[in-house]
Amino acid sequence: MNGTTGIFLAYLLIFLARVADVSLDVVRVLLLTRGKRFLAALTGFIEVSIFIVVLNEVLRQGLTDPGKIVAYAAGFATGNYVGSLIEEYLALGYMSLQIFPPARLVAEITGGLREQGFGVTQVVGEGRHGPRTVLFVTLKRRDLGKVLNFLDGLEAEIFYNVSDARAIRGGTFPLRRGNGK
Q: What is the DSSP string of 59-105?
């Protein structure tokens, strides 16, 4: 292996290791926010171990090699992107969805969501223009796209609000085919 190949491989190693450790950082934060402390701690251990090894390689012989700095920074940026893709794929946890439908669609939305296995709670509130029905749905993150597609199929401009649900207890959720969950 000649000098140029060795330098390129060092840059590649720095880049890939930084992608891995930053991606793990994103997953670790996700695990913490979902209350999975042990998995978060284990992920953090691996993440920091990679980080220390990579930082040592970057700092070896001082900061005189701009290629190492670029590989390190590019790995960090790419790691954030890859981490967000992993987080989206894992879709851990639950979401809380509040829907503010036009009165003419309340029954259709409620019935359609319940037919799909979702629990829906209706609350009548007072809006700017009078009484308004608000629908509350707690769902698994992986089901959010399905519900939003359902709503968009009825009317593209339905107002809704989505937020993370840190912890839930009880409720009604669709059964998963094949595993009963």
A: HTTTT--HHHHHHHHHHHHHHHHHHHHHHHHH--SEEEEEEE--GGG
